[in-house]
Predict the structure.
Amino acid sequence: MNNFLPLWNPHMGLGFPVHAEGQTSIFYPLDFIFFKLFPSHMAFSYLIFIYILLIGFFTYFYCRIISLTRLASILAAISFMFCHEVLSHLMGAIMAVRAIVFMPLCLIGVELLLREKQKWGYLVLVIAFTSVVLAGHGQTILYCYLLTSLYLILTIYFDKKNHFQEIIFFVLAVFSSIALSAIQIIPTIELKGLGPRAGALSMWTMVAQSYPPESFKYFLFPAVPPEGISTYLGFFPFIFFLLGFFIFSKKQYFKKSILLIVFFALLAVGKYAIALYAFLCFIPPFNFFRTPAHAIIPSLFFISVLGAMSCDSLSSLFKLKIRVRVLFLGGVVLLTFLDFYRTVDSFNYHRPHRFILSYQDLFKKSSIVSLLKEDKENFRIYEDFGGSPQNVLAQYNLDSVGPGGVYSPLSPDIYQKVFTNDFEKIWGIFNIKYYLSDHPLRDFSSHLQYLGRFDDERLSMTKSNNFRYPYQPFYLYQYKKYLPRFYIVDQVSSYADEHELLKLLRQGIISEKIALVEKENFHLENMPAKLITQMTEGRKKSKEIQLSVSNNKRALLVWNDFYYPGWEVYVDGEKNKLIRVNGLCKGVFLSSGKHNVVFTFNSKSFNLGFSISCISFLFVMLFIGVLFWRSRRSVRS
């Protein structure tokens, strides 16, 4: 899948529209480049270094723009780039780190606008906003737009000047970035409407994983609170931030920053500020997201900046000589860096260099992968992992299925019931041949065969017992009967609704001879003649599958792959109706004879988004060109 745009990933679940899941970040500029140039484990390693370095670089550059000294800017950069909340996302939510990278750059764009550098401010904002959206973490996208808007509003309020032109440029930058990101936004909206999180969340779901007020003490102490959210950003930066209340509490920048810190802290505490969320639960897109604790990131950024500013001001306040001042600031910077290096293991995550190198060992010389690779059939593996990441096997082109997912042709509650242990015995009908678990199955009856325990393997991403996912053995089972990826049946049974489908699935009537279809698609007459088929797979790509099929009577060709909008089927060059089969998969009715069948993925949402993004790119380039031309012309005149 390295030589074309991966719109459909057949290795995840029963197929997955990878372009529509924003958190895959396939259009994110850095990932798009590195995953094209390097193997996945190397790309991950390089990108983690680059993410953290860019967070520090943009924070440093922002501090320089607001007139902090170099050493103070370095202090702010170290405090924010190595704060525990940022590093902790490297494992569980690296897509949030991708978005956080460009958060300081958004503020840089606003500062450039307010300094009457409209063309540069507009350009920086468009790049930053677009990159944040393409990073794919919806909640962080919302907070970045909200933070930048509030930052602009508060700056204009305290400045008490007419900034109408700057506001126009800011609004243009927002809409330009949304239009440029349409290639990601429109398919994601389509997927969200079809997934288990379609529609707004309830208020109590929104405030799940809130940041409790008593945990604010962890700003000062490097430990993990019971909720697992550490906000430690260095002892010295936080102490200097507290001293700032006595040094420059009347300065406009301090007031503006404190207001932003308090606002995002209120968002982060979630259920402890229930009156706020009683209002927000009616406002999209706030009511699309849970885990409000993520909102603490902007507060951490401004605490880091104010701490560095306070340290800088203290060295000026005592009128220290230049050499002494440099030694003072340099000493604080060094102590802060050493403090992070000393304490980062205390909250159960690796020092970055250990963590990054671990990606290169992911499944290296794995006997599990080697064993599964020896099986040349077209099959799927069910991953039953309690603590390790899902779809780990997908990077080795081993198709894996997990209990959850962001899409299913069935309603979420029905889909969850199908992939629970009550239906474990029928999973073979979905092309699942192997069952891989991090715990032994107590009762696997006659439908599974135990293949062995693998003590030398682990499916987590590191080799240290200090990591969140400890070492554990894995157990491999094989289904004695499973259906192939493609097969043909001459008998069908219909169902009226999903509850009847669930009942039929529980009865286990699906086999290589019979399939389930919706009542309106029931067009197959059962004939007494024995079905004789021959099928070969031809051209196979992410967006297209070609089959040569021969059958002696009318039959249904079943493809064990998710039914999803955009898939089309052509039989002998003519477009046919795509049928939803067995509730989850797709198929097509075939008349007797030899046929050339082509399944192709033509996503209308992607095509629309791609067109809008291309047109927007031309508009942005033209607009920036006009701005620079007018600027050069005014200088000459």
